[in-house]
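W.,

You were right to be curious about this one. When I first looked at the sequence I had no strong expectations either way, so I just let the prediction run and decided to look at it fresh. Below is the sequence, 237 residues in total, followed by the output.
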Amino acid sequence: MPNNTENYIDEEAEGGANTIPPARFGGNIDDWRIGKGGTMFYRVEVPGAQIVVGDTHAAQGDSELAGTAMETSMTAKLRVTLHKAGSLPNKVATLDFPLLETLDKFVVHGFAYDNYLDQLADPSDIFSEGTSLDLAMADCYIKTRNCMMDVYSLTEEETIALMTTSVDFGITQVVDGNWGVHAGALFSLGNSAQIIFLTSHRLLITFQILTSGFSTRRTHHTITPAQHQSRLVAAVS
């Protein structure tokens, strides 16, 4: 989490910051596309940061409207990789949002408040202040626009023309206090696909979900390296 956690964790706090509201550093993203074969990219906000993974669903739709999806216990195999920013492309050094890579697209995540720990005097107010799809849409639009401009060296006008014809925006969730909107884009990164997004202001961490299954059934699903490495044909020439 960000450096300003003193705004949220003080002498009276019990258990630290709330893990329910999502933000740029993670939290409860609640995107059903995060699953087997996917890779999540998060910026590491502070030295010595720790990892918590959870809230698995057997089924969930966009918005998670009723407050819960089909909550379940799962057994999953994850690969966690720490990427040092200094060895990666400078043009994506400003990556500052949770990015999902699936087998066929990249998904940008925006929120009503990009980092409510910074933006709210009392972060607990996120459960009342964060209920805005307008703010979440604006945040997701800005992140997607900036990302595409950086990756493809496009002008703002060119990027918006591409976004309005080829990027799908959707409501991720409206249940976690800080409402979310996502943008799915068929990005193609050519030969640099392995590293183009693997950078941040300081460090970046990735979660690659290799296998998953319901623990009650003791199932075990696998994905081959070839499947994970697949990419679509370039969306931009």
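Here's what jumped out at me. The CA atoms of residues 64 and 90 lie 36 Å apart. And, maybe more interesting for your project: The domain at 18-219 is CATH 3.10.28.20 (Endonuclease I-creI).

Coffee later to discuss?

I.
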